[in-house]
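User: Could you walk me through two proteins back to back? I'd like the raw sequence and the C-alpha cells for each, with a short line separating them so I can tell where one ends and the next begins.

Assistant: Of course. Protein one, sequence then structure:
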Amino acid sequence: MSLTGGNRHDVTQLLPLLDKIPAVAGVAGRPRRRPDALLADRAYDYDKYRRLLWQRHIRPVIAERGVEHGSGLGVFRWVVERTIAWLHGFRRLRVRWERRDDIHEAFLGLATCLITHRHVQRLC
C-alpha cells in the first residue's frame, strides 16, 4: 500500500494499487494475482485507464461521466463508504498526524482488527 497526500487524484494510484494485490489462495494451480473486474465511480472514467485495465485482462465496470445515475454501482460503493466511515470513527485515522507512514499503517491495521472483533462479537 502506498500513502499519498490527500490532494492527489485517486485515478493516479489505480495501477500501483492493482500491482500491490497479493496472490489469492484458492484451488490447485497458479494463485490469482488480479481481479476479474474493477468496479469504480465516475472519477475513474478515462479511456487511458480503461485500456490499461483491458491489457491486464481486467474488465472495467466504471460509471460514465455525463450519464444519469442508476448504473447500480452505488450498491457496491456503499460498502466502501461505510467502511471508510467506520475507520473515521477512530480519531487518530480521521486526520493523519503521524509523519511516518509505518505508524499510520499500524494504526490502520489495529483499527481494522477492532472493527472485525466488534462484528464477530455481534455474531456470537
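----
Protein two, same layout:
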Amino acid sequence: MSEDPVLKIWLAEYDKLKAEQTQRIGFRDNLLYVTLGLFGVIIPTAISNPANYYALLVIPWISLILGWTYLINDEKISAIGRYIRLTLVDKIKEKVGHNEVESLFGWEIAHRDTPYRNRRKIEQLVVDEITFVLSGIVALITFFLLIPNPAIVLYLLGGVELLLLLILGWEIIIYADLAKGR
C-alpha cells in the first residue's frame, strides 16, 4: 500500500495542502491585528485636530483592502479543507479499499461537526463584519458629521467607499462557510 506511487503523490499533496492552509490561517488571522493597529494609529490622529478629519477617509480603504485580503485567504483555507474532505479523501479511500470516509483524515470532518460550530461561525461573521465593514462605514459617517460642507468630490468618494464596503460585507456573508459535516 505505501509503495503505491499514486498514493504517495496524494499523501504528499495532502501534506502540501495542510502546510499552505496553516500558512494562510496565520496570515489571515494577523490581518485582524494589522487592521486594528492601523485604526489605532489613524483614529487618534484624525480626531486630534479638525485639520486631520480627512484621515478618516483612509479607514474605509484600509477596511476594504485588508478585508478583501482576509476574505480571499479565508476562502482559500475553506477551499483546501473542502478539497481534502470531498475529493482527496475519496480518492485515497478508493485506492486503499477503505469504506469509512470519516476515519481518513478524521480531523478534517470532526472539527466541523461540533455542536458549537454554527454559533462560532456566526460570531466570527459578526466580528468580520464589524472589523472590515462597520468600522469603515462609521468612519465615513463620522467624517461627514465633522465636516460641515465637504466638496462634491468627497461625497463621490464617500459614496464609492460606502458601495465597496457594502459589497465586501455581502461577500463576507456569502463566504461564511456555515455548513456542518463533510
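Residues 5-174 form one domain.

Let me know if you want the two compared in more detail.
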